[in-house]
Write a structure and sequence with these properties.
heterodimer, A: alpha+beta, Porin, 2 domains, elongated, disordered N terminus, B: alpha/beta, Rossmann fold, four-stranded parallel beta sheet, 10 helices, 11% strand, globular
């Protein structure tokens, strides 16, 4: 029994020993088979990958070929702002400009009120010693429809609310033509076309004050036609028909209907990549009837004011700029002057001119400026009844300014003036002005 | 005989009437460059802003108005970057083709995904762009989408040459895509920079680096002493790789900050043509990536 067990054990052992190589051989074979199949699979995978790659390439090709039509992303949903930016569609863009200043003169308030330019204007300045609020100006602008853009400028001053500008501009006329209509600032001269807060000095130049008043021509009711031809040099031609309400050069009741007209040409060339020259002649003419030229008299006349403007701007970088600007104004006036109390009428003949030149240099947040104004420079004919009047010499003024602009929305300006325009007073008006100018909201860009 | 041939060929060349192509006015150099890639000799491109100028403070010059007067299409970056001069140029050009809503008024930003669109804003935050960061020309993928839109615009405006524009777009896209792999191989991921202005957000977004601070306390507001002091402290802590600046703004301030912190300054081009060897968009991106390396 024992032997059986033993022999069977031996057999089992033998079996195991004999079988082992057999088994081993079997594993090898299987492994080989496995390897083969893996290899086969690898090949298959490679083939599949190739197919996929080819398909991909085809797809890319197709995509690329049709790209501009098909692959173009849908433009994003309309933005909340149009070209003018910032606002929701239905509301016009609104901005507000606060212009306030501290004024100090060697003259008393009474003397200031009588600070006139003899032979030019009997209107004194509006400011008083101490704190002054020049204005809060409201601006509204927006496209009206595909054919018009509309601009409204409403200054609120101590004298109340007025409409300085309210006009529409065409946007869809044939190329080169544009019509402006409503109440607007005439483009015939430089300082007139600009808003007061965009002036390089706190006040208007002396020739403007002498011929047009403290605010210049200001907003006039009328129509303007401009044309910009395609020429090698920027050349804009313009004509205006205006109501003529300015109460120094014209007069609201000088005639029935519109009685002021202007023609202007503005040209510009770039003198380098960083500098531009802008210049042009203009004329503003019409009928005059007002009491502001000579004290106690009504002047009724035909007037023509010729202007030549020239501006050179140099802006080598975003932080540095120099602007030199000059205008020459020449007045022709023929008519009569009638004493308000005497009722005596005399012939009036004026040939007077005025000139200013100013420069402002700005670097980083700072700016310095200088200006020289003079009247009766080459022409001082003022004949009443054929007799030349003597007003005591050439009115003139020198001005210096210092600006600090913390941002493009804030301006602080210190201005000093030495004014000798009231030639009969025998005095000078030495002024110091500290002006603060703030703007909020979306303001339309200022033109060159 | 050769001379005759030469003079005949010269005669033909000279007597061919000047090509009356599509007149394109682009506000910025990169837009002009892109218009040229897509339109080649079939478009006449005029660029209003010089690459050496700061695109934020451009004034409308009469010469720009004259260029717009002659244009069939005006192309602009959008997102209010040109708000200070473009509306005035378009209105003063008296050219009805360029008015908003017309095919000739092409806002490049309409095709892109905008970064940094603020949820709330007012001007106490500085000169922020309420519609989002407008400097997306640093992002090749976004510019490609603008290129697609531009190709479609030219195709619509000049149907005869539709295939030409499509082919040009494809060629440009292929070149950009080939380059993109190259650019992505540059290890910018995880780098940290300080920048003068918020110029490089799209670049950071595309290439995975971080902008940890700005020299301007608020966009458009020049750096104050207090802000720089704070920035110096931050830079000592964070150890950024470089200070990024463009030639047009902030170079001197960046140099000063560099001498205080020992962090080097990298002057990146702000637009096509603003540095040597950035004559087109691809070389512009090439330059940007190689400078950041």
């Amino acid at each position: 029994m024992k032997s059986i067990v033993t022999s069977s054990g031996m057999f089992t052992l033998m079996l195991v020993f004999c079988a082992a190589p057999v088994f081993a051989a079997d594993v090898d074979e299987r492994l080989n088979q496995l390897e083969d199949s893996v290899k086969k699979q690898e090949v298959t995978i490679q083939q599949q990958q190739e197919t996929i790659n080819n398909l991909k390439a085809d797809l890319e090709k197709q995509k690329a070929q049709t790209a501009p039509q098909e692959a173009t992303p849908a433009p994003q949903a309309p933005k909340a702002s149009g070209l003018f930016g910032g606002s929701i569609f239905t509301n016009p863009s609104i901005s507000m400009v606060l212009d306030t200043f501290y004024y100090r003169s060697n003259l008393t308030n009474d003397e200031l009120a009588n600070w006139t330019i003899p032979g030019f204007t009997t209107q004194g300045p509006d400011q008083r010693n101490g704190f002054n609020l020049d204005s809060v100006e409201l601006f509204f602008f927006s496209p009206v429809d595909p054919y018009f853009d509309m601009y409204v400028n409403i200054p609120v001053t101590d004298n109340g609310v007025s409409i300085e500008e309210a006009y529409v501009v065409t946007t869809d006329l044939p190329e080169g033509w544009q019509i402006k209509g409503g109440r607007f600032k005439s483009n015939f001269s430089r300082l007139d076309a600009q808003h007061p807060h965009a002036w390089d000095f706190w006040d208007i130049a002396l020739p403007y004050r002498a011929f047009l008043g403290n605010e210049g021509l200001g907003g006039e009711n009328g129509v303007q036609l401009t044309y910009l031809p395609v020429l090698p040099v920027y050349t804009q031609l313009g004509a205006e028909v205006l109501q003529g309400e300015n109460d120094l050069l014209f007069g609201p009741d000088a005639a029935q209907g519109p009685h002021a007209y202007s023609f202007f040409v503005k040209c510009s060339v770039d003198t380098s990549d960083y500098s531009t020259f802008y210049f042009g002649p203009s004329v503003l003419f019409g009928e005059t009837n007002n009491q502001n030229i000579l004290p106690g008299s009504v002047v009724a006349a035909d007037s023509a004011l010729y202007v030549f403007e020239a501006v050179w701007k140099w802006k080598p970088s975003s932080r540095e700029a120099l602007t030199i600007q000059s205008e020459y104004l020449f007045l022709l006036q023929e008519g009569t002057s009638t004493g308000l109390t005497s009722g005596i009428s005399e012939s009036l003949r004026r040939r007077q001119d005025g000139f200013y030149v100013q420069g402002v240099y700005r670097k980083n947040r700072w700016g310095v400026g200088a200006r020289y104004d003079v009247l009766d420079l080459f022409q001082d004919t003022f004949k009443l009844g054929g007799v030349q009047q003597n007003f005591g010499g050439k009115p003139h003024r020198e001005t210096a300014s210092l600006e600090y602009n913390p941002s493009e929305f804030t301006r602080v300006r210190l201005q000093l003036s030495h004014d000798q325009s009231d030639t009969t007073s025998g005095r000078t008006n030495d002024e110091a002005i500290l002006q603060f100018n703030f703007s909020i909201g979306a303001h339309p860009a200022h033109s060159f | 005989m050769r001379r005759l041939l030469l003079s005949v060929s010269l005669f033909i060349t000279l007597s061919t009437p000047a090509f009356a192509g599509v007149n394109v006015v682009a506000t910025l150099p990169w837009i002009g460059s892109l218009a040229h890639e897509i339109g080649k000799d079939k478009v006449n491109v005029t660029v209003l802003v010089k690459s050496s100028q700061d695109a934020h403070t451009i004034e409308a010059k009469p010469s720009m108005i004259l260029a717009a007067r002659k244009a069939d299409i005006i192309m602009y970056d959008g997102l209010d970057l040109e708000i200070g001069y473009l509306p005035l140029i378009i209105e003063s050009s008296k050219n009805p083709k360029l008015m908003p809503g017309k095919i000739g008024n092409f806002d490049c930003s309409q095709f892109i995904t905008v970064l940094e669109k603020p949820a709330t804003f007012d001007r106490s935050m500085g000169d922020v762009h309420p519609l989002g960061n407008p400097h997306y020309h640093y992002s090749p993928s976004r510019v490609l989408r603008v290129a697609e839109g531009m190709a479609r615009l030219f195709t619509d405006a000049d149907k005869v040459n539709a295939d030409f524009y499509r082919a040009n777009y494809k060629a440009f896209a292929d070149r950009v895509k080939a380059k993109e792999t190259e650019w992505r191989a540059v290890p910018l991921n995880g780098k940290k920079y300080v920048a003068y202005h918020k110029y490089f957000e799209y670049l950071a977004n595309e290439f995975g680096f971080r902008l940890i601070g700005y020299m301007e306390p608020k966009p458009g507001i020049p750096p104050s002493a207090a802000h720089i002091e704070e920035l110096v402290r931050l830079m000592k802590e964070e150890k950024p790789d470089a200070i990024l600046v463009t030639p047009a703004i902030g170079k001197e301030e960046a140099e000063a900050l560099s001498s205080k912190t020992g962090v080097k300054v990298i002057v990146l081009p702000n637009d096509v043509g603003s540095l040597e060897g950035t004559d087109d968009l691809i070389s512009f991106w090439d330059k940007v990536v190689s400078l950041l390396k």
